[in-house]
Amino acid sequence: MTIALETTQPIAVRRIMLIDDDPFVRDVALTALSVVPGVTVQAWSSGAEGLAALEGFAPELILLDVVMPGMDGYATWAHVAKRSGKPPRLIFLTGRDDDDTRDKAVALGAAGVIVKPFNPAAFAAAVLGVAHAAATREAKVDAVAQSFAASLPATCGMIAAAWEAMADAWNADAAEVLLAAVHRIAGVAAMFRFHQLGEAADRAEGLLRTALAQSGRRDCAEHAGLESAVMAVIEEGRKAAGITSNEATLSRVV
Q1: Whole-model pTM?
Q2: What distance in Å separates the CA atoms of residue 74 and residue 66, rounded to the nearest whole number?
Q3: What is the CATH number assigned to the segment(s) 2-118?
Q4: Which pLDDT tens digit goes with each residue over 106-137?
Q5: How far apart are CA 85 and CA 29, in angstroms?
Q6: pLDDT per residue over 2-16, tens digit each?
Q7: How many CB atoms lie within 10 A of CB 7?
Q8: Cα–Cα distance measured from residue 202 to residue 205, given in angstroms and rounded to the nearest whole number
Q9: CB of 103 within 8 A of CB of 110?
Q10: Closest Cα partner for 4 from 45, 47, 44, 33?
Q11: Multiple choice CATH, 143-247, 3.30.300, 3.10.20, 1.20.120, 1.10.3470
């Protein structure tokens, strides 16, 4: 069932997918959302049906029931989250109003939780309120992510210089500078969806800590992948910042 409404009113979301196995919940939710101008809502009775329609509908927000026969809401969302590109915003619909349910929703990246039974008269406002708050929050996070990305060229330059200082012999001071830089990246990159950069920095940090614990002995087995790990951080950092390896020469220690 689809409800489409025309308007030029700016709102946080314009395509909402509702997945709930209860036909009465679907009818009430669709009726409540029908008062929102400029929004198209599609309702489906199972996770499998919703997933089949996901690519064609391209929702900006999914209202997803947690407890459903067969594929529950958590399993359905796992399939959505695996898809490439930025996932839609998510609001779970659930009859469980407890901390564990809300904590799990947050852990899965949900923008919010709406507890059933809900007030039909307040449902649309609740959905749009959560969506607006999520959009505002995402805009602020995106601004921080852009600031982080803008700092990466300088950080990569610092990493390259520190590694170059270790070209002829182990340099504990340079290693500490290098460790601080990759530790900083490892701690925040994944928050901004720079997953490959975060993984590279995490690996380099582990190898550097091992090397420092070994007093910098360059012949120890743990050093085997250190150079490639550091180079990977520089390469992924420049990719995240929009710089290709052709635009800058990576330092290399033989």
Answers
A1: 0.66
A2: 6
A3: 3.40.50.2300
A4: 999 899 999 999 999 999 999 999 988 888 88
A5: 28
A6: 434 333 334 678 899
A7: 11
A8: 5
A9: no
A10: 33
A11: 1.20.120
